[in-house]
Design a protein that fits this description.
The longest helix is centred in the C-terminal third of the chain and has 76 residues. With 180 residues, the protein is of the alpha+beta class. It is built from 3 helices and 3 strands, in the order αβββαα. α1 runs antiparallel to α2 and α2 runs antiparallel to α3. A 3-stranded antiparallel β-sheet has the order 2-1-3, covered by helices on one side. A hairpin with a 2-residue loop joins β1 and β2. The chain has one domain.
């Protein structure tokens, strides 16, 4: 068995282990705030349980005298898992390629190329996480706007009812005056 085959076998084993213990994502609601955060790594057939969700609650903003309940679901974070698999595959290919060549300059160039690819993949992962956070904030803002509109409509209805009650009271007072 040559060096390329050995590296390929190690890469396949690492990718299989990553698939057996994938990254999980918690998506749900904490109080009135949307939650989309990492739930860590767990065995594929035994995802993080609802009992452990409270571990991620401290990452969410809380206010004094408010009780937050956490509801939602966990799912495999495929974006992160695919990026991890890509990193392993690219590194395995790069290592096999670099070790097979006798030219020292080619080995150095391959190492720099691999480092740049890994850095780009990691940066892509950070950008996706930031995009999720921005999306969560936008959803929270939209929910708040809907709640504000509902509150404004309720206030308008209450004001109309108060005006109607005041008019009824005025009419009753006028009727009472006309009787006397």
């Amino acid at each position: 068995m040559n060096i390329r085959q050995k590296i390929a076998i190690v890469a396949v084993i690492i990718i299989a282990l990553m698939g057996l213990f994938p990254p999980w994502r918690l998506a749900g609601v904490l109080g009135v705030t949307g939650v989309d955060t990492s739930a860590g790594y767990a065995f594929l057939l035994d995802p993080p349980s609802k009992d452990n969700w409270g571990l991620f609650a401290p990452q969410m903003p809380t206010h004094a005298n408010q009780v937050f309940s956490l509801s939602g679901s966990v799912h495999v974070d495929l974006d992160v898992l695919l990026i991890q698999w890509a990193i392993v595959a690219i590194l395995a290919w790069g290592i096999a390629y670099a070790l097979e060549r006798d030219n020292q300059r080619m080995k150095v160039m391959s190492a720099f190329l691999l480092a740049a690819i890994v850095a780009a993949l990691l940066l892509m992962s950070d950008i996706q996480t930031t995009a999720r956070q921005v999306q969560s904030i936008a959803e929270d803002a939209q929910r708040t706007a809907v709640e504000a509109q509902t509150t404004a409509e309720e206030a308008k209805t209450t004001a109309e009812e108060a005006q109607s009650t005041a008019e009824d009271a005025q009419m009753t007072a006028e009727e009472a005056r006309s009787r006397f």
